[in-house]
Amino acid sequence: QLQLVESGGGLVQPGGSLRLSCAASGFTLDYYAIGWFRQAPGKEREGVSCIRSRDGSTSYAESVKGRFTISRDNAKNMVYLQMNSLKPEDAAVYYCAARGAYVCYVGRKEWYDYWGQGTQVTVSS
């Protein structure tokens, strides 16, 4: 059974950092494009970043460029989202998503077939 499980969320002060993890099971991550999305209360789910399969090319939403870094460790079947210089507006539930494809799209949640349950990120002083 294909499963994605996010972890690493929590409470952090503005300007702080968190690293989110997305653990895949039931499939080999190498051949899957992975996206990170987030959803704040009352808002639409929005794309944050994505990473292609095979070559690991990355894309970011403008709002997180220069602050967030997506990476993957195929040997561990893991994808990470390093989040630095966090702002209150980054607070949301963060989800990872997967599709068995090469290309990824940051802003297209309908592209992805598999989703994790989410991890809460709170940015507050």
Describe this structure in words.
The structure is a single chain. A hairpin with a 6-residue loop joins strand 5 and strand 6. The chain is mainly β and 125 residues long. Helices cover 0% and strands 47% of the residues.
Which helices and strands appear, and what pairs or packs with what?
Layout: E1 3-7, E2 10-12, E3 18-25, E4 33-39, E5 46-51, E6 58-60, E7 68-73, E8 78-83, E9 92-99, E10 114-115, E11 119-123
Helix coverage percent? under 10%
Mean pLDDT: 96
Please tally the β strands and state the result. 11
Q: Shape, please? A: globular
Instruction: State the major sheet.
Output: 7 strands, mixed
Strand content: over 45%
Class from secondary-structure proportions: mainly beta
> What are the segments in which pLDDT stays under 50 over at least 5 consecutive residues?
none
Following the backbone from N to C, one meets helices and strands in this order, namely EEEEEEEEEEE
- Write down the Rg: 13 Å
